[in-house]
Amino acid sequence: MRGGSKLDLLVGDRAEGCWSVGHGCSLGIRNSEARLDSVNFERGRFSLLRLGSDGLLTFQRLLRLVFSRRTSRLVSYDLARLRTRIKRWRDKGVAPDCPKLHLGCGERRVTGWLNSDVSGSEYDVDLACGRLPWKAECFEAVVSQHVIEHLELFDELLPLLREVHRILKPGGSVWLSCPDIRKVCESYVSTGMDDLLEDRLTRWPKYSLRGAPSRHLINELFHQQGEHLNLFDFELLSWALYLCKFDSVVQIEESDLLERFPEFPARNDDRQSLYVCATRS
Ligand SMILES: C[S@@+](CC[C@H](N)C(=O)[O-])C[C@H]1O[C@@H](n2cnc3c(N)ncnc32)[C@H](O)[C@@H]1O
């Protein structure tokens, strides 16, 4: 989980209409720096554990007693999403201060944009929850780089794209990038991933496949330790965008994005990435 040393964990059980995931872990956590709060939630009253960074580490260690590293990380991430959904559940029709929205910003805060992510951002949202808190037609532009591949296509991404269409002003556009399934497969077939590995090393000199042959990079791009759910090519992504009522979808390059919004830091990742701009009329 990125961005933040705190995790809010709901405990309770399904009989109370709550999540049971943290229930068995709470005794161990109480021995660390956990602090008990409470929160009123729609369906009742539940305990909320507020964990400091030590508590979070303890919690992750406890998860590791039961689950694989991958499952432990995904459970931690889902708890961060849950925390954000609880934080935002009353937020509807919010009028933003800024007409440009940067979704899934990660560590890349861009000046002049509302930088949003699941935690630790200027305005946290869970992009997978099916709705966005902002009022209709309030943004001129939305940018999201290397985020859509983290979402389920039907249950999460299509609802998100419909919401992005809703919050864009007429004439507004969404700019998306993600690993390009075509470029990844072409690299595997033509060079066994040598060219994309070389490209990656020019951008991240410390990147390592830990001794595995370069073709292992295709696993990283497809799965990223279980974080990536779908890669896209232009056909698949434009299908999704048209389905969500966008009127024009064009394949672009990173330079087109940077020309339009020079404040964005360059990723220099055209060799592996798909860039798309979709507009609503
Ligand atoms: C690979 S990082 C990309 C970060 C940044 N856009 C960049 O280009 O460096 C993916 C980002 O998507 C965010 N993300 C993934 N799933 C999300 C969700 N359900 N809600 C909000 N953000 C999410 C992650 O927290 C992470 O910051």
Q: How would you describe this structure in keywords?
A:
globular, 9 helices, six-stranded mixed sheet, Rossmann fold, disordered N terminus, 281 residues, alpha/beta, three-stranded antiparallel sheet, binds S-adenosylmethionine
Instruction: Give the CA-based shape.
Output: globular
Mean pLDDT: 84
Catalogue the ligands: S-adenosylmethionine
* Low-confidence parts: 1-50
- Give the N-to-C terminal Cα separation: 37 Å
* Strand segment tally: 9
CATH class of the domain at 100-181 and 223-279: Alpha Beta
Instruction: Fill in the CATH topology of the domain at 100-181 and 223-279.
Output: Rossmann fold
CATH superfamily of the domain at 100-181 and 223-279: Vaccinia Virus protein VP39
Main sheet: strand order = 5-4-6-7-9-8
Q: Which class best fits the helix and strand makeup?
A: alpha/beta
Gyration radius, rounded: 20 Å
CATH architecture assignment name of the domain at 100-181 and 223-279: 3-Layer(aba) Sandwich
Helix content: 25-40%
Describe the sheet with the most strands: 6 strands, mixed
Number of helices: 9
Please state the oligomeric state of the protein chains shown: single chain
